[in-house]
């Protein structure tokens, strides 16, 4: 396939710009129709079709772009990259149209992969012709809303658009559109944008908070590994993407589809933004109000994280999986290491809430007798055991699961299939790999037996790993393919797991189960509705902004806006592609995690052990002081969790959320608000012993020295290695 075929056919340039005058409407049609909801309304203009969203005061907060805008932007210098981002570079040939509603009909969208360990660069080929919706030709009532039939530039092809108050009752309008030709794909909606408009959210994106000027994909992938291999971050990639955002123009947006979505947020023209969905239909929600009102509305639909049990709010120590490649998987080694770690935690008086046994399910790592002894020791120390599960199925060399699990799924049809009905497995790390098919009722029974059996051992919870391994051509039990299931499988997996956990807790009073996930997505609802927490994936042990320490804060701040406010990072990082974590990096990472929803120390099987005692006595002292500060702040954090559950407002808040009128905070990634009373400014640069902090208006007290500062200025405060810079609002004592 040639480079040109990556984009729309060049013949499209010769298409007319549809300057035809619209046909007169039937006498019964008005020029516009209004659908009113809860403090928000939609106006549908009929000649030509155009959509406007108004707030409770009648102000237009979002409007379709005018349809007389040229189909192609002659000044556009952006063309769709592959989903891997920086692996390929193609010259700009043609750019997408901007039109209130358009779609493509032609050859199917195809996906090609290049296997690279666990990383799969994916390239999308599109070869189709653009078609445009023109006028409304029919209007009918539909419940509390109205259904509009739209004429298009494709003969005998129409689009049905439903506009209604959001069924949930929140302050939002829901719009859905379906092209009546099943060959249609890549349905798109384009809206006007103010040149200074900001867009916040989109899930776990690194490198920026304001996405104005960027093109983004919503496709769950192992962005951490890809960023590390490429050597820089890419905003187009995310491990925890969310197809939702909040605008500085006082509206929120949530796309309900799980298919591949592309968001063009003023990247090729600053006066417009567009969403493109790889389907012949799309549904989205628009809310109206200020930022906090929009977060409440959107997260009420997308979902908010389940409460974290009190026992899981302290230190969770995760013991790495053994790996034969570096020789630490000899019989008995894992058990001996575990007992040694527990003894060290006890000797150093490091208060520990949970101990994650990552290799519990493989007898090659831990025999049943050893597991029983380890569980008994944890019970004696009053430390909750946590275990490990994953959506991915594989017979891998890491032995994090018994290989028999993979073959049970393969033999019994618990994984998706190919078109010919054979099990769909493909190589990852040179091992056959697939995923659990959570649409298959027989697979669900099998999954429930596995989760329940693990909990019966006494596990207090588990890490729920992987889930991004769905390929577009996989066939699922319910008839869907991987095109819609790639992003949706993590939602289904978390939903079914939450159901099993809830049933188990009801049958076992007093058991508060905690599980946290890696793969996730948004929706109606999305993953956040079913998880206790998420983790960021595998950060590198570095100061890097794409994969290391500096990537953590924007990732957490961005995904927390979508209801995923319980997010944890691997303290000190996981991979050592950029070098082993040194003492300074470990301490600064520990400090960043001080007020995190989950405080987790996770070690990789590929790197040397990374614990407080791996360094020196000073590191142990600082680590323990961080735990003490966290414990002191817990009553305040508990009030923030209550607020989050009720409103969706996260614990960690980007500065712009609390101070939206201060332009200094539009893209601030070096500090954040813990609730509305505490400003936290972690040190994120190697060798720094001071911190430059932008203080909001008002009075602020630096809690490390007690000094009071007048806000509205940038101050430099001392930040020696044992200090996490924090400020309280004057007159407040949150902890």
What can be said about this structure in brief?
The protein has 735 residues and is of the alpha+beta class. The longest helix has 31 residues, at 617-647.
Global shape: globular
**What is the helix tally?**
11
Helix content: 10-25%
Query: Overall pLDDT, averaged?
Result: 89
The major β-sheet equals:
13 strands, antiparallel
Class by alpha and beta content: alpha+beta
Poorly predicted runs are: 1-20, 73-95, 115-119
Question: Strand tally, please?
Answer: 38
Q: Ends: how far apart?
A: 62 Å
Strand content: 25-35%
The whole-angstrom Rg is 26 Å
Strand order of the largest sheet: 13-15-16-19-11-10-9-8-5-12-18-17-14
What this model shows, in words?
The protein has 735 residues and is α+β, with helices and mostly antiparallel strands. Helix content is 21%, strand content 27%. The strands form 7 sheets. The protein has a 13-stranded antiparallel beta sheet with strand order 13-15-16-19-11-10-9-8-5-12-18-17-14.
Please give a handful of descriptors for the protein shown.
disordered N terminus; 13-stranded antiparallel β-sheet; 11 helices; single chain
List the helices and strands and how they pair.
Elements: E1 32-36, E2 40-46, E3 49-55, E4 60-63, E5 101-106, E6 110-113, E7 122-125, E8 128-142, E9 145-152, E10 158-165, E11 172-179, E12 184-192, E13 199-203, E14 214-218, H1 223-230, E15 241-247, E16 251-255, E17 261-265, E18 272-277, E19 281-288, H2 291-302, E20 315-319, H3 333-347, E21 354-357, H4 368-380, E22 384-390, E23 392-394, H5 403-412, E24 426-428, E25 431-435, H6 441-456, E26 461-465, H7 482-507, E27 514-517, E28 533-535, H8 549-560, E29 567-568, H9 583-592, E30 599-602, H10 617-647, E31 652-653, H11 655-658, E32 672-674, E33 678-680, E34 690-694, E35 699-702, E36 708-710, E37 714-718, E38 726-729
Parallel strand pairs: 20-21, 20-30, 21-22, 22-26, 26-27, 27-28, 28-29
Antiparallel strand pairs: 1-2, 2-3, 3-4, 5-8, 5-12, 6-7, 8-9, 9-10, 10-11, 11-19, 12-18, 13-15, 14-17, 15-16, 16-19, 17-18, 23-25, 24-25, 31-32, 32-33, 33-38, 34-37, 35-36, 35-38
């Amino acid at each position: 396939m040639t480079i040109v075929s990556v984009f729309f056919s060049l013949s499209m340039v010769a298409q007319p710009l549809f300057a035809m005058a619209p046909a007169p409407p039937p006498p019964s049609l008005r020029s516009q129709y209004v659908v009113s909801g809860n403090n928000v309304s939609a106006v549908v203009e009929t000649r030509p079709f155009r959509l406007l969203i108004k707030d409770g005061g009648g102000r237009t907060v979002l409007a379709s772009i005018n349809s007389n805008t040229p189909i192609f932007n002659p000044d556009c210098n952006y063309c769709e990259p592959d989903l891997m981002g920086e692996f390929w570079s193609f010259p700009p040939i043609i750019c997408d149209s901007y039109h209130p509603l358009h779609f493509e009909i032609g050859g199917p969208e195809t996906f090609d992969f290049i296997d690279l360990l666990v990383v799969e660069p994916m390239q999308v080929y599109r070869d189709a012709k653009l078609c445009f919706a023109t006028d409304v030709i029919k209007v009918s009532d539909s419940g509390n809303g109205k259904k509009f039939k739209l004429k298009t530039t494709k003969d005998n092809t129409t689009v049905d658009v439903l506009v209604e108050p959001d069924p949930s009752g929140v302050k939002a309008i829901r719009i859905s559109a379906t092209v009546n030709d099943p060959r249609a794909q890549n349905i798109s909606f384009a809206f006007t944008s103010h040149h200074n408009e900001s867009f916040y959210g989109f899930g776990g994106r690194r490198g920026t908070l304001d996405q104005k000027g960027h093109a983004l994909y919503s496709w769950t992938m192992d962005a951490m590994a890809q960023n590390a291999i490429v050597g820089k971050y890419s905003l187009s990639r995310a491990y925890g993407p969310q197809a939702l955002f909040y605008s500085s123009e006082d509206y929120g947006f949530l796309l309900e589809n799980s298919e591949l979505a592309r968001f063009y947020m003023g990247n090729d023209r600053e006066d417009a933004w567009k969403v493109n969905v790889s389907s012949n239909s799309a549904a989205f929600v628009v809310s109206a109000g200020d930022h906090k009102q929009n977060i409440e509305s959107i997260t009420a639909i997308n979902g908010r994280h389940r409460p974290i049990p009190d026992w899981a709010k302290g230190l969770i120590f995760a013991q790495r999986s053994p790996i034969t490649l570096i020789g630490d998987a000899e019989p008995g080694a894992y058990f001996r290491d575990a007992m040694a770690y527990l003894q060290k935690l006890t000797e150093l008086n490091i208060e520990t809430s949970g101990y994650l046994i990552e290799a519990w399910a493989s007898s090659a790592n831990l025999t049943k007798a050893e597991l029983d002894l380890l569980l008994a020791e944890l019970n004696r120390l009053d430390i909750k055991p946590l275990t490990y599960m994953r959506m991915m199925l594989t017979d891998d060399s890491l032995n994090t699961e018994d290989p028999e699990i993979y073959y049970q799924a393969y033999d019994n049809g618990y994984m998706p299939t190919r078109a010919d009905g054979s099990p769909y497995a493909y190589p990852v790390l040179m091992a056959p790999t697939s995923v659990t098919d959570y649409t298959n009722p027989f697979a669900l029974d099998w999954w429930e037996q596995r989760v329940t059996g693990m909990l019966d051992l006494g596990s207090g919870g588990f890490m729920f790993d992987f889930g991004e391994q769905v390929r577009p051509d996989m066939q699922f039990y319910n008839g869907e393919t991987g095109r819609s299931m790639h992003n949706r499988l993590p939602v289904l997996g978390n939903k079914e797991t939450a159901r099993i956990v809830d049933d188990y807790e009801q049958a076992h009073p007093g058991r508060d189960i905690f599980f946290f996930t890696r793969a996730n997505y948004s929706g109606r609802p999305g993953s956040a509705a079913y998880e206790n927490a998420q983790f960021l994936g595998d950060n590198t042990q570095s100061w890097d902004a794409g994969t290391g320490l500096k990537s953590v804060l924007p990732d957490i701040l961005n995904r927390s806006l979508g209801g995923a406010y319980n997010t944890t990072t691997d303290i000190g990082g996981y991979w050592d592609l950029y070098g082993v974590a040194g003492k300074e990096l470990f301490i600064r990472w520990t400090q960043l995690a001080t007020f995190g929803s989950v405080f987790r120390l996770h070690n990789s099987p590929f790197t040397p052990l990374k614990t407080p005692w791996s360094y020196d006595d000073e590191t142990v002292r600082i680590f323990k002081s961080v735990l003490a500060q966290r414990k002191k702040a817990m009553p305040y954090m508990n009030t923030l969790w209550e607020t989050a559950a009720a409103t969706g407002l996260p614990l960690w808040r980007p500065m712009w959320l609390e101070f939206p009128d201060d332009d200094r905070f539009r893209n601030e990634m070096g500090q954040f608000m813990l609730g509305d009373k505490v400003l936290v400014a972690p040190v994120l640069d190697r060798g720094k012993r001071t911190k430059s902090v932008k203080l909001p208006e008002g009075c602020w007290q630096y809690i490390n020295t007690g000094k009071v500062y007048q806000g509205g200025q940038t101050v430099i405060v001392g930040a020696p290695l044992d200090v996490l810079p924090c400020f309280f609002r004057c007159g407040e004592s949150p902890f």
